Amino acid sequence: MTEKIIGENTGLKTVMERVRLVATSDIPVLILGETGTGKELIARVIHNLSPRAEGPIIRVNCGAIPSELVDSQLFGHEKGSFTGAVERHIGWFERADGGTLFLDEIGELPLQAQVRLLRILQDGWLERVGSHEPIHIDVRLVTATNADLAQMVAEKRFREDLFYRISTFPIVLPPLRERKEDIPELARYFAEKSAQRFSLPVIYPTDEDINLLTQYPWPGNVRELSAVIDRAVILGNGKRLEIARALGLSSNERYTAPENSIEKTPLANNTFLPLDEYIRRYIIQVLEHTKGKIEGKGGCAEILNIHPNTLRAKMRKLNINWRSIKNKYTKN
């Protein structure tokens, strides 16, 4: 197992006990938790501890696929099955054959695709779009969501039969605010990773830094902690970790944050922004740092540790005009 699990004997002890119980079986697993709690990491651990470890594990973000392309992306399509289908396409289920398919944000899956997914779980066969020839697949399904699927079932936005099928063995990830004993080790780990990524000396958080980090409520959980450490490393430029400034708790005359930067968040006055606005401001700040570069080495997606397509979907959702940022630096 290559994934590093921080907190497996502390804040994630119960989670890891359940992971080890279910990993060797083939039953579907539903991972529940707030955004940024590490659901993909747990999915990969389940795969690595399973008999399928030598097979592929494929992650699909259901929320990042346009609704009209979901069936084609998941189940594949035949040439000529619809306008633009100029060749056969092998979907994610077939690509994951012999391994694990991790469907993240399963609550975003359209109802029509939910019907197809249910059929695959029931009998292990699929049909590509535009074909009536069944194809047998051998895939272990792991799903994840931060949504209340039971409420979505009650509102007829998620199929009840599919809900019971995928939730055979649920695993609930605690938010970071409920496992603060893991923050010191997580902070040191991210400090090492950030320094390596930005080619800077490794500087570990001080006791005062840890105190600040443990007092913060972490609405974005472990992913937000990683981002804060990234920001602290960048602001310190290899000389120190600027934890307080990264959290927006103080200012420094040598640094002027963008007007819409996350550092303008008045956390010191206990006035918290909605999470989406918090994320929006942070993405804008990172885009300012990368001068509008989205992907590639040193790009915004790399710094945020997410796929460029996921970042683009998030920017559309949050109404972030990255081109205006890029154009500003292109003109200079």
Task: Give a brief outline of the structure.
This protein is of the alpha/beta class and 332 residues long. It has helices at 13-23, 39-48, 70-75, 92-95, 111-123, 149-154, 160-166, 183-197, 207-215, 221-236, 243-246, 275-290, 300-304, 308-317, 322-331, and strands spanning 29-32, 57-61, 100-104, 125-126, 135-136, 140-145, 169-172.
- Helical percentage: 40-55%
Summarize model confidence as the mean pLDDT.
Answer: 87
Write the H/E string, N to C.
HEHEHHEHEEEHHEHHHHHHHH
Q: Total domains, how many?
A: 2
Please characterize this protein's 3D structure.
The chain is an alpha/beta fold and 332 residues long. The protein folds into two domains: 162 residues, P-loop containing nucleotide triphosphate hydrolases (Rossmann fold, 3-Layer(aba) Sandwich), CATH 3.40.50; 155 residues, Helicase, Ruva Protein, domain 3. A hairpin with an 8-residue loop joins strand 4 and strand 5. Helix 1 packs across helix 2 and helix 8 packs across helix 10. It is globular and about 65 Å long. The termini are far apart.
